[in-house]
Amino acid sequence: MFSIVRFAFIIGVMLFTASYAASSKGLDTSWDMRYIDLSKAHREGRYDEAIQIADELIAVLKANSLLSSERMSSVMTKLGRIKSDQALYAEAHPHFIQALELSEKIFGVNSRDYEYSLMDVAGNHADQRQFEKAEEIYLQLLTLKEAKKDKQLSDIQVPLQALAHIYYEQGRLDDAERHILRALESSKADVMGVKFDGSAHAWQSLGAIDAARGKNKDAIAWHEKALKVLDKEFADSKKKWETAGNANYARLIACHERLAKLHGAIHNTKEAKKHEKRANQLKAEQPGEPMQLPEPWRQGVLPLR
Q: Where is this region: Disordered (predicted)?
Protein backbone atom coordinates (compact mmCIF):
# COMPACT_ATOMS: atom_id res chain seq x y z
CA MET A 1 0.00 0.00 0.00
CA PHE A 2 1.31 3.38 -0.93
CA SER A 3 2.09 5.52 2.07
CA ILE A 4 3.66 8.93 2.40
CA VAL A 5 5.41 7.64 5.50
CA ARG A 6 6.98 4.72 3.67
CA PHE A 7 7.65 6.80 0.56
CA ALA A 8 9.35 9.44 2.73
CA PHE A 9 11.64 6.71 4.09
CA ILE A 10 12.57 5.67 0.55
CA ILE A 11 13.21 9.31 -0.32
CA GLY A 12 15.43 9.66 2.73
CA VAL A 13 17.54 6.69 1.69
CA MET A 14 17.87 8.09 -1.82
CA LEU A 15 18.95 11.49 -0.53
CA PHE A 16 21.47 9.97 1.87
CA THR A 17 22.94 7.81 -0.89
CA ALA A 18 23.11 10.69 -3.35
CA SER A 19 24.87 12.94 -0.88
CA TYR A 20 27.56 10.52 0.16
CA ALA A 21 28.25 9.04 -3.23
CA ALA A 22 29.54 12.50 -4.09
CA SER A 23 33.20 13.41 -4.17
CA SER A 24 34.92 13.16 -0.79
CA LYS A 25 37.59 15.67 -1.69
CA GLY A 26 39.29 16.90 1.46
CA LEU A 27 37.22 14.65 3.73
CA ASP A 28 37.65 11.22 5.25
CA THR A 29 35.01 8.80 6.51
CA SER A 30 34.93 10.49 9.91
CA TRP A 31 32.68 13.20 8.42
CA ASP A 32 30.21 10.57 7.24
CA MET A 33 30.23 8.87 10.62
CA ARG A 34 29.65 12.19 12.34
CA TYR A 35 26.70 12.84 10.02
CA ILE A 36 25.25 9.51 11.16
CA ASP A 37 25.66 10.75 14.74
CA LEU A 38 23.73 13.87 13.74
CA SER A 39 20.89 11.80 12.29
CA LYS A 40 20.72 9.64 15.41
CA ALA A 41 20.68 12.63 17.77
CA HIS A 42 17.89 14.19 15.69
CA ARG A 43 15.89 10.97 15.62
CA GLU A 44 16.19 10.57 19.39
CA GLY A 45 15.16 14.15 20.08
CA ARG A 46 18.55 15.32 21.36
CA TYR A 47 18.20 18.58 19.49
CA ASP A 48 20.89 20.70 21.19
CA GLU A 49 23.44 17.96 20.61
CA ALA A 50 22.30 17.57 17.01
CA ILE A 51 22.75 21.28 16.35
CA GLN A 52 26.23 21.17 17.89
CA ILE A 53 27.19 18.26 15.62
CA ALA A 54 25.78 20.11 12.60
CA ASP A 55 27.94 23.12 13.45
CA GLU A 56 30.99 20.84 13.60
CA LEU A 57 30.17 19.36 10.20
CA ILE A 58 29.71 22.80 8.65
CA ALA A 59 33.06 23.92 10.06
CA VAL A 60 34.76 20.96 8.37
CA LEU A 61 33.02 21.72 5.08
CA LYS A 62 34.09 25.35 5.32
CA ALA A 63 37.71 24.35 5.99
CA ASN A 64 37.62 22.18 2.86
CA SER A 65 35.86 24.74 0.64
CA LEU A 66 32.76 22.52 0.40
CA LEU A 67 30.06 24.97 1.51
CA SER A 68 28.42 24.62 -1.92
CA SER A 69 28.39 20.82 -1.90
CA GLU A 70 25.72 18.15 -1.62
CA ARG A 71 26.90 17.55 1.93
CA MET A 72 26.14 21.14 2.88
CA SER A 73 22.67 20.78 1.38
CA SER A 74 22.11 17.66 3.50
CA VAL A 75 23.19 19.43 6.70
CA MET A 76 20.95 22.43 5.95
CA THR A 77 17.99 20.13 5.36
CA LYS A 78 18.71 18.33 8.61
CA LEU A 79 18.92 21.62 10.54
CA GLY A 80 15.61 22.72 9.04
CA ARG A 81 13.93 19.52 10.18
CA ILE A 82 15.48 19.75 13.65
CA LYS A 83 14.02 23.24 14.03
CA SER A 84 10.68 22.12 12.58
CA ASP A 85 10.44 19.25 15.06
CA GLN A 86 10.67 21.85 17.82
CA ALA A 87 7.97 23.98 16.13
CA LEU A 88 10.61 26.65 15.41
CA TYR A 89 9.31 27.07 11.91
CA ALA A 90 10.62 30.60 11.29
CA GLU A 91 14.11 29.48 12.32
CA ALA A 92 13.84 26.43 10.06
CA HIS A 93 12.96 28.50 7.00
CA PRO A 94 16.43 29.88 6.08
CA HIS A 95 17.93 26.39 6.36
CA PHE A 96 15.37 24.98 3.93
CA ILE A 97 15.90 27.92 1.57
CA GLN A 98 19.67 27.39 1.55
CA ALA A 99 19.20 23.67 0.88
CA LEU A 100 16.84 24.53 -1.99
CA GLU A 101 19.31 26.97 -3.53
CA LEU A 102 22.10 24.41 -3.31
CA SER A 103 19.91 21.68 -4.82
CA GLU A 104 19.03 23.94 -7.74
CA LYS A 105 22.68 24.86 -8.29
CA ILE A 106 24.03 21.31 -7.99
CA PHE A 107 21.27 19.16 -9.48
CA GLY A 108 19.02 21.54 -11.45
CA VAL A 109 15.29 22.23 -11.24
CA ASN A 110 14.35 18.99 -13.01
CA SER A 111 15.99 16.79 -10.38
CA ARG A 112 14.29 14.90 -7.58
CA ASP A 113 16.71 16.48 -5.11
CA TYR A 114 15.34 19.89 -6.07
CA GLU A 115 11.77 18.62 -5.73
CA TYR A 116 12.43 17.25 -2.25
CA SER A 117 13.91 20.59 -1.16
CA LEU A 118 10.94 22.37 -2.70
CA MET A 119 8.61 20.18 -0.62
CA ASP A 120 10.49 21.14 2.53
CA VAL A 121 10.07 24.85 1.78
CA ALA A 122 6.38 24.43 0.98
CA GLY A 123 5.82 22.38 4.12
CA ASN A 124 7.58 25.05 6.15
CA HIS A 125 5.19 27.70 4.81
CA ALA A 126 2.26 25.41 5.62
CA ASP A 127 3.58 24.90 9.16
CA GLN A 128 3.57 28.68 9.56
CA ARG A 129 0.03 28.79 8.11
CA GLN A 130 1.30 30.80 5.16
CA PHE A 131 -1.08 28.92 2.94
CA GLU A 132 -0.90 31.13 -0.15
CA LYS A 133 2.88 30.73 -0.33
CA ALA A 134 2.62 26.98 0.30
CA GLU A 135 -0.08 26.60 -2.36
CA GLU A 136 2.03 28.43 -4.94
CA ILE A 137 4.99 26.11 -4.35
CA TYR A 138 2.92 22.91 -4.33
CA LEU A 139 1.29 23.96 -7.62
CA GLN A 140 4.78 24.58 -9.02
CA LEU A 141 5.83 21.13 -7.81
CA LEU A 142 2.74 19.52 -9.35
CA THR A 143 3.53 21.19 -12.68
CA LEU A 144 7.13 19.94 -12.54
CA LYS A 145 6.01 16.39 -11.84
CA GLU A 146 3.28 16.34 -14.48
CA ALA A 147 5.73 17.58 -17.12
CA LYS A 148 8.06 14.62 -16.66
CA LYS A 149 7.90 12.00 -19.40
CA ASP A 150 8.96 9.24 -17.02
CA LYS A 151 6.65 10.27 -14.18
CA GLN A 152 5.02 7.63 -12.01
CA LEU A 153 1.50 7.93 -10.67
CA SER A 154 2.94 8.22 -7.18
CA ASP A 155 4.86 11.35 -8.20
CA ILE A 156 1.78 13.54 -8.30
CA GLN A 157 0.20 12.16 -5.13
CA VAL A 158 2.42 14.15 -2.77
CA PRO A 159 1.54 17.64 -4.10
CA LEU A 160 -2.12 16.66 -4.56
CA GLN A 161 -2.41 15.51 -0.95
CA ALA A 162 -0.48 18.51 0.30
CA LEU A 163 -2.77 20.88 -1.60
CA ALA A 164 -5.77 19.08 -0.14
CA HIS A 165 -4.39 19.67 3.36
CA ILE A 166 -3.91 23.36 2.69
CA TYR A 167 -7.46 23.78 1.39
CA TYR A 168 -8.84 21.69 4.26
CA GLU A 169 -7.09 23.88 6.84
CA GLN A 170 -8.75 26.92 5.28
CA GLY A 171 -12.20 25.31 5.26
CA ARG A 172 -12.20 24.98 1.47
CA LEU A 173 -13.70 21.51 1.65
CA ASP A 174 -14.81 21.24 -1.97
CA ASP A 175 -11.30 22.08 -3.19
CA ALA A 176 -9.80 19.61 -0.72
CA GLU A 177 -12.19 16.89 -1.88
CA ARG A 178 -11.38 17.53 -5.53
CA HIS A 179 -7.66 17.01 -4.93
CA ILE A 180 -8.19 13.90 -2.79
CA LEU A 181 -10.36 12.36 -5.50
CA ARG A 182 -7.64 13.05 -8.02
CA ALA A 183 -5.06 11.50 -5.69
CA LEU A 184 -7.34 8.48 -5.38
CA GLU A 185 -7.15 8.00 -9.15
CA SER A 186 -3.38 7.51 -8.80
CA SER A 187 -3.50 5.64 -5.49
CA LYS A 188 -2.25 2.35 -6.91
CA ALA A 189 1.40 3.04 -7.63
CA ASP A 190 4.73 1.39 -8.20
CA VAL A 191 7.51 3.14 -6.27
CA MET A 192 11.02 1.86 -6.98
CA GLY A 193 9.63 -1.56 -7.85
CA VAL A 194 7.39 -1.81 -4.77
CA LYS A 195 3.63 -1.76 -5.30
CA PHE A 196 1.54 0.40 -2.97
CA ASP A 197 -2.19 0.99 -2.63
CA GLY A 198 -2.94 4.42 -1.21
CA SER A 199 -6.71 4.03 -1.32
CA ALA A 200 -6.96 3.80 2.48
CA HIS A 201 -5.30 7.19 2.83
CA ALA A 202 -7.67 8.82 0.36
CA TRP A 203 -10.76 7.19 1.89
CA GLN A 204 -9.86 8.40 5.38
CA SER A 205 -9.29 11.88 3.99
CA LEU A 206 -12.70 11.81 2.31
CA GLY A 207 -14.08 10.70 5.67
CA ALA A 208 -12.43 13.68 7.38
CA ILE A 209 -14.02 16.01 4.83
CA ASP A 210 -17.45 14.47 5.43
CA ALA A 211 -16.93 14.76 9.20
CA ALA A 212 -16.10 18.45 8.75
CA ARG A 213 -19.41 18.77 6.90
CA GLY A 214 -21.21 17.17 9.83
CA LYS A 215 -21.77 13.87 7.98
CA ASN A 216 -20.30 11.58 10.64
CA LYS A 217 -22.04 8.41 9.43
CA ASP A 218 -20.61 8.89 5.95
CA ALA A 219 -17.22 9.57 7.52
CA ILE A 220 -17.43 6.30 9.45
CA ALA A 221 -18.28 4.40 6.26
CA TRP A 222 -15.16 5.77 4.53
CA HIS A 223 -13.00 4.80 7.50
CA GLU A 224 -14.47 1.30 7.73
CA LYS A 225 -13.63 0.84 4.06
CA ALA A 226 -10.07 2.02 4.72
CA LEU A 227 -9.77 -0.26 7.74
CA LYS A 228 -10.35 -3.35 5.59
CA VAL A 229 -7.37 -2.41 3.40
CA LEU A 230 -5.17 -1.62 6.41
CA ASP A 231 -6.14 -4.88 8.15
CA LYS A 232 -5.24 -6.86 5.03
CA GLU A 233 -1.91 -5.06 4.66
CA PHE A 234 -1.18 -5.69 8.35
CA ALA A 235 -2.01 -9.41 8.05
CA ASP A 236 0.00 -9.80 4.84
CA SER A 237 2.98 -8.13 6.48
CA LYS A 238 2.80 -10.48 9.46
CA LYS A 239 2.50 -13.49 7.20
CA LYS A 240 5.51 -12.48 5.13
CA TRP A 241 7.83 -11.15 7.84
CA GLU A 242 6.39 -12.82 10.99
CA THR A 243 5.78 -9.35 12.37
CA ALA A 244 4.21 -6.22 10.99
CA GLY A 245 6.43 -3.19 10.51
CA ASN A 246 6.07 -0.11 12.67
CA ALA A 247 4.55 1.79 9.74
CA ASN A 248 1.81 -0.86 9.48
CA TYR A 249 1.13 -0.55 13.20
CA ALA A 250 1.10 3.25 13.10
CA ARG A 251 -1.42 3.45 10.24
CA LEU A 252 -3.71 0.80 11.70
CA ILE A 253 -3.63 2.33 15.18
CA ALA A 254 -4.40 5.76 13.74
CA CYS A 255 -7.40 4.44 11.80
CA HIS A 256 -8.87 2.75 14.88
CA GLU A 257 -8.36 5.94 16.91
CA ARG A 258 -10.11 7.96 14.21
CA LEU A 259 -13.03 5.52 14.18
CA ALA A 260 -13.26 5.72 17.98
CA LYS A 261 -13.46 9.51 17.72
CA LEU A 262 -16.09 9.41 14.97
CA HIS A 263 -18.29 6.91 16.82
CA GLY A 264 -17.92 8.99 19.97
CA ALA A 265 -19.17 12.04 18.08
CA ILE A 266 -22.49 10.28 17.37
CA HIS A 267 -22.63 8.79 20.90
CA ASN A 268 -22.09 5.23 19.71
CA THR A 269 -20.20 4.32 22.88
CA LYS A 270 -20.01 0.59 22.20
CA GLU A 271 -18.25 1.00 18.84
CA ALA A 272 -16.04 3.78 20.15
CA LYS A 273 -14.80 1.57 22.99
CA LYS A 274 -14.25 -1.34 20.60
CA HIS A 275 -11.92 0.71 18.43
CA GLU A 276 -10.17 2.23 21.46
CA LYS A 277 -9.55 -1.28 22.79
CA ARG A 278 -8.13 -2.49 19.48
CA ALA A 279 -5.86 0.55 19.19
CA ASN A 280 -4.52 -0.08 22.70
CA GLN A 281 -3.96 -3.78 21.91
CA LEU A 282 -1.91 -2.85 18.86
CA LYS A 283 0.11 -0.33 20.86
CA ALA A 284 0.87 -2.98 23.49
CA GLU A 285 2.10 -5.57 20.98
CA GLN A 286 3.98 -3.16 18.72
CA PRO A 287 7.67 -4.10 18.60
CA GLY A 288 10.32 -1.46 19.13
CA GLU A 289 9.73 2.27 19.32
CA PRO A 290 6.34 3.48 18.01
CA MET A 291 6.54 5.31 14.71
CA GLN A 292 5.38 8.90 14.89
CA LEU A 293 3.43 9.87 11.81
CA PRO A 294 4.78 13.12 10.36
CA GLU A 295 3.02 16.46 10.12
CA PRO A 296 -0.27 16.42 8.15
CA TRP A 297 1.07 17.69 4.82
CA ARG A 298 3.44 14.75 4.61
CA GLN A 299 1.45 11.79 5.90
CA GLY A 300 -1.26 11.66 3.26
CA VAL A 301 -4.33 11.61 5.55
CA LEU A 302 -6.39 14.67 6.45
CA PRO A 303 -6.75 15.07 10.25
CA LEU A 304 -10.15 14.82 11.91
CA ARG A 305 -11.52 18.06 13.32
A: 269-305
